[in-house]
Amino acid sequence: MLENKILIRIISDSEVFSIIPLLQKLGNYKVSEKLLKDRLQEMTQQNYECLGIFDEEKLIGTCGLWFQTRHYAGRSLEMDHVIIDDAYRSHGIGKMMVEYISDYAKKKSCNWIELNSYVHNFPSHKFFYNQGFVAKGYHFVKEL
């Protein structure tokens, strides 16, 4: 059973660059490895933590965790760039990840978990609805 081999844990700042190969698979943007390293280094100084999902020693998934206080929600956690390797999808790992994050957020006194999902990513929408998330609005961006 695959779930018995899966380990979910926080990736230390010193090993955060290990997520770069997964980030490069996203495909919705192209960022050089050097720039990813620079940004990850800066992010670890800004209330960012990184979750790793492992099949024994192999990193198969990741999710960024941003902690902040919002006027409408209080202390909250925002999930960022949720990635699970294609070969490991539809095996219950995403559900395990959301349960882990929910427990972790409670331990950090968060009242709310939020995330963004690209409008065209319907499988993601279905998954997160099934995990108890609801759509509250749109995330707008303006490139500068």
Describe the structure.
This protein is an alpha+beta fold. The protein has a single domain (2-130), classed as Gcn5-related N-acetyltransferase (GNAT) (Aminopeptidase), CATH 3.40.630.30. The chain is 27% helix and 29% strand. It contains 4 helices and 5 strands. The chain has a 5-stranded mixed beta sheet, covered by helices on one side. Strand 2 (48-55) and strand 3 form a beta hairpin. It starts with 5 loop residues before the first strand and ends in a 14-residue tail after the last helix. The model has no long low-confidence stretch (mean pLDDT 91).
Using brief descriptors, characterize the structure shown.
29% strand; Aminopeptidase; 5-stranded mixed sheet; alpha+beta; globular; 144 residues; 5 strands
Radius of gyration, in Å, reads: 15 Å
CATH superfamily: Gcn5-related N-acetyltransferase (GNAT)
In the sheet with the most strands, the strands line up as: 1-2-3-4-5
Give average pLDDT, whole number.
Answer: 91
Q: Give the terminus-to-terminus CA distance.
A: 48 Å
| Domain count | 1
CATH architecture: 3-Layer(aba) Sandwich
Strand content: 25-35%
Structural class: alpha+beta
| Series of secondary-structure elements, N-terminal to C-terminal | EHHEEEHEH
Describe the main β-sheet briefly. 5 strands, mixed
Note the overall shape. Answer: globular
Helical coverage, percent range: 25-40%
What's the CATH first level?
Alpha Beta
Tally the beta strands.
Answer: 5
